[in-house]
Amino acid sequence: MKLSEIAGRLNCRLAGDGDVEIVRIAGIDEAGQGDLTFVSNRKYVSHIKTTRASAIILGDDIPPVDIPSLRTDDPYLAFARALELFFVPREPDPGIHPTAVIAEDAQIGAGASIGAYAVIGSGCTIGERVTIHPHVVLYPEVSIGRDCVLHSFVTVREDCVVGNRVILQNGVVIGGDGFGFAPTKTGTFYKICQTGRVLIEDDVEIGANTTVDRAAVGDTVIRRGSKLDNLVQVGHGAQIGEDCVLAAQVGVAGSTRIGSRVMVGGQVGFAGHLDVGDGAIITAQSGTSHDIPAGGVVSGSPAFENAAWLRSTAIFPRLPQLMRRIRDLEKEVRQLKNIVENQENRGD
Amino acid sequence: MKLSEIAGRLNCRLAGDGDVEIVRIAGIDEAGQGDLTFVSNRKYVSHIKTTRASAIILGDDIPPVDIPSLRTDDPYLAFARALELFFVPREPDPGIHPTAVIAEDAQIGAGASIGAYAVIGSGCTIGERVTIHPHVVLYPEVSIGRDCVLHSFVTVREDCVVGNRVILQNGVVIGGDGFGFAPTKTGTFYKICQTGRVLIEDDVEIGANTTVDRAAVGDTVIRRGSKLDNLVQVGHGAQIGEDCVLAAQVGVAGSTRIGSRVMVGGQVGFAGHLDVGDGAIITAQSGTSHDIPAGGVVSGSPAFENAAWLRSTAIFPRLPQLMRRIRDLEKEVRQLKNIVENQENRGD
Amino acid sequence: MKLSEIAGRLNCRLAGDGDVEIVRIAGIDEAGQGDLTFVSNRKYVSHIKTTRASAIILGDDIPPVDIPSLRTDDPYLAFARALELFFVPREPDPGIHPTAVIAEDAQIGAGASIGAYAVIGSGCTIGERVTIHPHVVLYPEVSIGRDCVLHSFVTVREDCVVGNRVILQNGVVIGGDGFGFAPTKTGTFYKICQTGRVLIEDDVEIGANTTVDRAAVGDTVIRRGSKLDNLVQVGHGAQIGEDCVLAAQVGVAGSTRIGSRVMVGGQVGFAGHLDVGDGAIITAQSGTSHDIPAGGVVSGSPAFENAAWLRSTAIFPRLPQLMRRIRDLEKEVRQLKNIVENQENRGD
């Protein structure tokens, strides 16, 4: 495809030779002849000079470059769309595989694809054009919206509800029992029935082997547009707002409510029963047992305001030096005191 | 069901109108007309005034309230039992699904339910009334006790032993190979056969996608009554005592022995070959490469005594202030020293 | 088997009675009559006196002991090999299980074993003597080398390539979609097609429920001989070098490149786009958003040089004491200042 045509399709400004023939999208270091590459992360601007790509997608703010470029105010989105011009996703096999075990009363939407060995429980509803890959298990009374994709080894447990255009990567567990036990007087734990549901709203994507638990009462909810990475844990009764991003291995304990547009770095932990305000940012490996206000940016374990945390962590490696300085001060003050007391005595 | 009847069944003291008709158990903020709610977490006591529930389960120590209440010294356990009065768990399909692949010499107890596409290996024994959901794999020579529930995509590997009334949530892996490799002189790693077993004792529950590894020699053991949340890792040869609680994403490295009634917060990490005493508490995100004494309460990474940790973490955000104070002291001491030395010189 | 014969097979020096009959390999505390045990971890040297084992494998550097011993400069490797003398691994069922769903154009190597309900997609190639346990899913166009073992509930997604002698424990997901979304002006996230592959080179082992993501463009690579424990996350486009060891629950964010022979402790987190040099060691629970030089040993979150970190963490519990000492100093300096100023005034 000619670069000029790509420019038109992506609504980018063309700078340089539009007749260059593009056959592939590639990373800046891997790209070669015929490849269109991109820079959206500042870290890679210096790689522009050495790339062997035939053309490059760049932000409007990057100075002119030697190779043909497509200019836009959003190079990352343009890259995402460019990929789609060249990538032909594999069509799932149409229809229902003969080995799928589907309850008689389950309702399957038009155009759905159901793979080998899928098990669809009684009372389930599956929307139009849903792709169920092989080896997916829906327990009874599950509802899946339109245009969803459920990958192999996904489980959706009884009564849970999944919206439209939801993507569940391989091994996701929706609606496993919440971790609820009442301690008894003999020191054992009494299991609390987990009778609630999990609701996954539209346009959510959930990463491989992530688990979202059901609660004893009430719903665990992931709201519209939120994206959860792999190996994330969402506890019973937690709520994740709209358009949140939770990186891999994050843990959200039970009943915690996370607002909208919250960004959570990898391996962050939230204690239970917290409120995290809209737009908050929690950096990687932080942990908190306190609420976080809307717009707050916090770090550390226990977490506090990010700018202050940066200052404290910068000093932390110098603690031995601080220790020495205190010791030196103590020595000097002791000496001074001796001198001054001698002077006082002499002065008497 | 009338509130007075619920009071009787739960052995609670009734305060207020016992004729109120209860149709559901619900959380304090979601509850409405006909709902029985509860407060067991102090954090929610203030919500009692605003709940629209028709009645409430409360501890004996909470002052009188405006709505009918059920009083008990253990409101959480009463709530757990109240739930069971209203929740009818779905019965698994009886018998063995025709698609299950069951070795000829496997023994299946009376009343067991085995779901679609389960695979039961040679020499396996499954106790009475066990529920094996669809898509469970038991490798050869596995023993499962009575009244267990194994959810979809559970694997129990060869030779492992599971006790009675054990619940394995979806995706649990029991008996994967331990992470054992001997370094060779050329810098590669030589795999050590993992010939041990995993033993899961009675009344254990294990959360979704949690992994419990087998060891090279000897058994990895989870003792009676312990509860593990989702995405927990238990390394080869580790032992977890009785009635322990391990929250989500905890990691226990190989050969570590955890005593009984130990409480472990989310994302905690234990190095290998440690001893953790009975009744110890390790708060969330802590990490230790040292033994923890019985009854110890520790926090932080590296972990130390919790009360001291609370004091240190309270100071940590003020490190820049401490730094300034040291700098100011140094300046003042320098000035004082100058003055004093001048005085000394004058005094000479 | 006689101890003398074992000595010969393992190339160990025999000390003591070679006629002892050995029937099993066992841990030092569990071993009894007829057992051969070993000590490779210094922590267990003191257990030699109390073991009831009939013989023991020991390093050349350990002083003489009372029971017959096999001496070697590498007791851990000798132990690994001793295990193989007594452990007969279960042979997988030969051939292809009739319930396996295998695409017509898939190529299966001689001697491969394919278990019940495995699903092998179109265009897949499986090497000789591969063991595919029940319930493995290979998406289309996957290539698996020779002598691999894929355990139950492993998924290898479309186009991914697995080398020779690779072991994938239960529930591993290779090639799930990377966590790539472009933010839009309305605050939603636009999914970026993940068109890259995952390449797993020869002799890699990957632990249960670990996930390795594919990237938008380019390959995610795990190089020859590296070992990943359970519940590890490898992000899109990351590269792990040769002979690395990643302990459980480690997270490697996208595009990070880890060199060769890097040792990573449990629950460590790497931010994206980093370079970690050959031979680096990152201790458990550390986290870094900075590059790590070759041979670097780092700890903490944020991580810095391990020896300095040990010193700082030793001081951290004494922060309250430091605080008091600063307060005392301030008081003393204030008093001294008063005295000195009085002296000055008097001196005037």
CATH class of the largest domain in chain A reads Mainly Beta
The biggest beta sheet of chain A reads: 12 strands, mixed
What is Rg of chain A?
A: 28 Å
What CATH architecture label of the largest domain in chain A applies? 3 Solenoid
Number of extended strands of chain A: 38
Class from secondary-structure proportions of chain A: alpha/beta
Helix content of chain A: 10-25%
The total tally of domains of chain A equals 3
In percent terms, what proportion of residues of chain A is strand? 25-35%
Q: Largest chain-chain contact?
A: A-C, 70 and 71 residues
The low-pLDDT segments of chain A are: none
Report the span from N to C terminus of chain A: 99 Å
* CATH topology call of the largest domain in chain A: UDP N-Acetylglucosamine Acyltransferase, domain 1
What spatial order of strands do you see in the largest sheet of chain A? 6-9-12-15-18-23-26-29-32-35-37-38
Q: Kindly report the average pLDDT value of chain A.
A: 96
Number of helices of chain A: 4
Oligomerization state of this entry?
homotrimer
Q: Provide the CATH superfamily of the largest domain in chain A.
A: Hexapeptide repeat proteins
User: What would you call the shape of chain A?
Assistant: flat
